Amino acid sequence: MNDTEYRKVILKEIALWENELRTDVRTDLERAFNRWMNRKIDALPGSVKQIFFRKIDESLFNLHSFIQNSLFQQDVKKQILLSAKILNEHIVQIDDLHMLSIDQLHYLADLQTAKHRLYSFIQGGITGTGGILLTGVDIPAQTILNLRSIQMVAMCYGYEINNPFEMMLSLKVYYASLMPRHLQYQQWQELKKEIDERDSMYYFYEGKDDLADSTSLEFILKQVTKLSVLSFLKRKIVAGLPLFSIMIGAGANYQLTRQVTEFANKFYQYRLINEKSNGI
């Protein structure tokens, strides 16, 4: 299968995935929970929510830069380039990955996302063992893992994330990927629109830079609820271990990272195909 045919296959897969996002498959219990959650969030004072949202954005901007410039991230970047160089000896920097075919880039991205899903699974299982310290670091640890996974996916498709435009775009992908599936479709369409209207390489970001909203608060509340459940289940010991809390913690964190990496992979696939089709 040549690259053009493979692009058509990928676009067909993305279209089917879009249809799944468009369909609201929530159960009655999930709908009732979402309505209850929205009422609780709406009851908070607007000024408190705005301050909270601003703090979330500032924290993620700083964390994104820290991860990007960390030695570990630089080492992984080198690994991506070494793997790509096996496929094409002319590759020197991340931008050169666009020399590879879509299926080769998909292969590189799958290698990285598989590692991050495993890391998330292990980290969730460790959180499930209990302890105030382990429970307290679960949300920060998941944030770091999932931000790193999006950065990895972006680099695997040939997008260097060291400029304001790429940073903001990756954070938008991160926020969208955390949303419940029935809300992801609208964010996906907005991301597609931003890419479709882009006809040249940008450095500075000129769009809206305040990202956190009520959905972000809902996500945090759900994570706190998960940790509360784990704290309760860790009392149920089987063979000397809190197996129920370990299994639930590992499964929940794995599923979250799987959702994030799937969304990021679809987005950067679509972006690359769109740019190649437009000759960018």
From TrEMBL:
Superkingdom in the source lineage: Bacteria
InterPro entries for the chain: EcsC
Protein name (record): EcsC family protein
Organism field: Metabacillus rhizolycopersici
